[in-house]
Amino acid sequence: MGIFDNVFETDIKKDKNKQQSFGKKVGNKLKEFKEEFSENLSEFDNQPYRNNGVILTKMSDHTATVKYDGLLAQYGADDVYTVIGYGSNSNWENVQTIRMNRIGNTFQADIQTIPGTNVNIAFKDSADHWDNNSGMNYTFI
């Protein structure tokens, strides 16, 4: 074995150790870290209503996109509207109703946001069935 073989072999061993150290240990197994998701962690981490089918993605300081595939979509609604208001969840201000665009089984709309003010959201379909999170609404800060 030449001097360069030893250097390259050492580098290969180091690289193998580095690869094995990336990830999160779950039980006795190492869960692989997927770098392609690392840039958008904040978008996915703070989604309290994800299980209800509601996702809010901030686009800028004054706009956000709401995606909805909750109960109304699951039960076959043709049209879904997002009803939004600002401020306290118990006293909405500047209430608006916006028709959402259908993309497959998901509905989507761009909404205005006001920095430092809650955005309160509920959904309804064309038959006036509501998804308002069991009366608690969907509130984002």
Offer a few descriptive terms.
141 residues, 3 helices, five-stranded antiparallel beta sheet, Immunoglobulin-like, 38% strand, 20% helix, alpha+beta, four-stranded antiparallel beta sheet, single chain
Proportion of strand residues:
35-45%
Question: How large is the count of helical segments?
Answer: 3
Q: Globular, elongated, flat, extended or rod-shaped: what is the shape?
A: globular
Largest sheet: 5 strands, antiparallel
Provide the CATH top-level class of the largest domain.
Answer: Mainly Beta
- Number of folding domains? 2
Structure report:
The protein is α+β, with helices and mostly antiparallel strands and 141 residues long. It folds into two domains: 31 residues; 99 residues, Immunoglobulin-like, CATH 2.60.40. It is 20% helix and 38% strand. Strands 5, 6, 9, 10 and 11 form a five-stranded antiparallel beta sheet that branches. The protein has a four-stranded antiparallel beta sheet with strand order 3-4-8-7, with no helix packed on it. About 28% of the residues have low confidence.
